[in-house]
Design goal:
The protein is α/β, with parallel strands linked by helices. It is globular, with a radius of gyration of 16 Å. The N and C termini lie close together (12 Å).
Length: 187
């Protein structure tokens, strides 16, 4: 049996969703799938006809999806209803919420970012998840940086390390790879 062709279309602000998408693609390719990865800010998707599975990823900032990922969902909503769909988001705040024991908040944003988004477009994804993200103090605005200064202490307390000057990566790569491998078995 021929394996489904997979499209991973994502929107990113600071690069976390890009590298997460590439890692997911790497795992799926190792499982024998043909995968196309598209940064929606740099490339326009004309149609999704040839793909058996479409994975949509978006970075989160101030509880908002990227405009490119939202536009993709809107443009292809009718086509996506007829396909296997997966949705994931990258959220730098997830690790902090886990560390603080804010499980109700994690449930709230999971519902808002994933379940409500899928429902808005009439989608029934085979998988939805929220991964960690990246806080990059070198790329965020001065106002947002000032707002986040207080969080640096929480990063240290949560065991989040500075991966390079001003960059805090909250992703769990083993979790991402495990999820992608499980996804490969669902397809």
């Amino acid at each position: 049996m021929e394996k489904a062709k997979i499209l991973i279309a994502y929107g990113t602000r600071y690069g976390a969703t890009a590298s997460t998408s590439e890692e997911i693609a790497k795992v799926l390719k190792s499982e024998g799938f043909e995968v196309k990865v598209v940064n929606l800010k740099k490339e326009k998707v004309k149609n999704i006809t040839n793909f058996g599975l479409v994975i949509i990823g978006s970075g989160m900032k101030m509880e908002m999806w990227t405009s490119e990922a939202k536009a993709f969902l809107k443009k292809f909503s009718d086509d996506l209803k007829k396909k296997k769909v997966v949705i994931f988001v990258s959220s730098g705040g997830r690790a902090l919420m886990e560390h603080k024991g804010e499980h109700d908040e994690i449930e709230r944003i999971t519902k808002k970012y994933l379940e409500d988004k899928a429902s808005k477009y009439g989608l029934n994804p085979i998988s939805m998840t929220m991964f960690g993200g990246v806080w990059d103090y070198n790329q965020i605005s001065k106002i947002f940086r000032k707002f986040l200064e207080a969080e640096k202490e929480n990063f240290i307390a949560a065991g989040i390390k500075e991966t390079e000057p001003g960059v805090y990566d909250t992703r769990n790569w083993d979790e991402i790879r495990k999820w992608a491998k499980e996804l490969a078995n669902k397809i």
